[in-house]
Amino acid sequence: MTPAPPSAAPLRTNGEGKLVWAAIAVTVLLWASAFVGIRAAAADYSPGALTLGRIAVGTLTLALMLLATRARDRRRGEPLAAASGKRLPRGRILVLVIVWGVAWFGVYNVALNAAEQHVDAGTAALLVNLAPMIVAVLAGLFLGEGFPRRLIAGMVIAFIGVVIIAVSTSSGTFDALGVGLGLLAAVLYGGAATLQKSLLRHVDAPTMTWIGCLAGTISCLPFTPQLIEAVSAAPLSSTLAVVYLGVFPTAIAFTTWGYVLSRSSAGRTAASTYAVPAVVVLLSWLLLQEVPPAAALFGGALALAGVAVATLRRRRVA
Predict the structure, then answer these.
(1) Calpha distance 259→239 (Å, rounded)
(2) Which of 150-159, 212-221, 292-301 ranks highest by mean pLDDT?
(3) How far apart, in Å, are the Cα atoms of 276 and each of 29, 150, 163, 261?
């Protein structure tokens, strides 16, 4: 894995800082809504069909957004990618962007969709948000940052939380499978975020997001028969949920995520998603009338506490 670059420089203007916080808020809200949207469509769309439908819509939306940006730049007399100062990826960088896209847009979404066939939206969100700790682990393994005591302690706390989640949601093999798929999604999320941060030195975020989403779509084309069958049989509400997932949590939220990630460190950006599970639980309660069991909420809180211990830096005393 390509080493991650140094942390981004401090924001130069107050206005830019406000834009970053606005982008974080949009990302958190839309990604939280994705867990609810997946759960709403899960009865009518298989994990593969839902993934292909979502990222195909996302790819088309991202292409339109990219074309609109290019047209705006041309009207201003700016050459291609002048705003970012980066060229379209080639060679090894292009290959890595494709790998990133297949892993996050393709495999991650299939794993998450499959997990939500077995566990509620809130529980899935709690499991996936182990990702910031996984970013820290990957940094220790591949970036030479080591395994400080805080990381080890956080991993132990988070593991205990995951065990509590698994026990409280398990009524048989299928729930255990859902927990395992949720953890797989968290690993893919953590790995993709780490790789994306390093690649953003070579390609601008909107272009990278579009290429990655396109690569994920192509990799999921074997699910086309399932998608066609689901679209023909599913109620309109479920199909609209798929379209919503493609436009908002995919095209828009991944664009705002890339904007933030290009201006901050991978660990801090990932840590900004700590609020997602709380929003998911609230939305799933309001829209789906489902709330994780009390023990699962406790386990999730414990797991997130472990993530915080592992990833948040201790303030130095003057």
Answers:
(1) 29
(2) 212-221
(3) 7, 23, 20, 17
